[in-house]
Amino acid sequence: MDFLKKHYEKVLLGAVLLGLAVAVGFLFFKIASEKAELARKEAELRSPKVNPLPPLNLSPYAAVLQRLGTPAILDLSAPHKLFNPMPWQKTPDGRLIRVDANSIGPRAVVVTKINELHLELALDNVSVEDSAPKFVIGVKREAAPNPKDRRKTERYCKVGDKNDVFMLKQFRGPPDNPTNVVVVLNDTHEEAVITNGSNKLKPGFQRIDGYTADLKYPPENKTWLNRRANMPPPLAFNAEEYDIVSISNIEVVLRAKSNQKKWSIAYHSPD
Question: What is the total count of domains within the chain?
Fold first, then answer.
């Protein structure tokens, strides 16, 4: 105890120096640790870990580019009225109608009816002379261009004879009362079987050779009945004349006399 009392200053100073020595030693380790931490942070800052970006959705921009690649078409023709004012016209009965391609002119023509024109052949009579039968065949050509050729006329012929309409090829059945006769038509070279008039199930022979049409033009209250193709006079309406070029069971074709332009007018059957 006396030693401590006499040398306590030295003991205290030694303890302090020992503490300082430990602190200095600890500083070396701390400095080394701090340097390592700083180096790690510096490395992270210099070469940071970057996550890849998600793929971009470019579909809206692609759609815009596609629209830009399609040129815009501005159509100011009919039926737009901005630069095409709609004129109106008064009909003979006082009605007002729009003056457009569907209200006046050929497109306003209406086909009200289409009628068939037939070639009709009938076995009217038969007589036997010297065992060779002679046939009387009635001919009616409703589509003939000349009106006088449309009424029924008769042809007298034997097997093998030829006239302006047909050639008599053969007959079937007894000579004085055959069930039918077979002829070859001159225009189509087809065989036509003409049944005897006593056969009520199928008398004679009939073929469609053409059509007539009934037409009307409402804007001028005009009507044409039983008109044929290329039949004069032409149809006159809307200050123009039109010829009927052809008629079928579904349409009528008109042709303007001024410029030869054609229009097809469809027939809508009421059935």
Answer: 3
The least confident of 19-23, 79-83, 94-98, 115-119 is: 79-83
Residues 6+ apart with CB under 8 A from 173: 179, 180, 196
pTM above 0.85, yes or no: no
User: Domain of 204?
Assistant: 114-209
Q: What is the mean pLDDT of residues 105-128?
A: 92
Instruction: Give exposure, 236-262, as e/b (b: 16+ Cβ within 10 Å).
Output: ebbeeebbbeebeeeebbbbbeeeeee
Backbone angles phi, psi at 244, to 5 degrees: -85, 115
Residues 118 and 104 in one domain: no
Has residue 199 got a pLDDT over 50?
no
Total residues found in the chain within this entry: 271
In a domain, 95, yes or no: yes
CA-nearest of 122, 113, 167, 117 to 147 is: 117
Alpha-helix runs per DSSP H in the chain: 2-46, 59-69
240-247 and 222-227 as β-strands: parallel, antiparallel, unpaired? unpaired
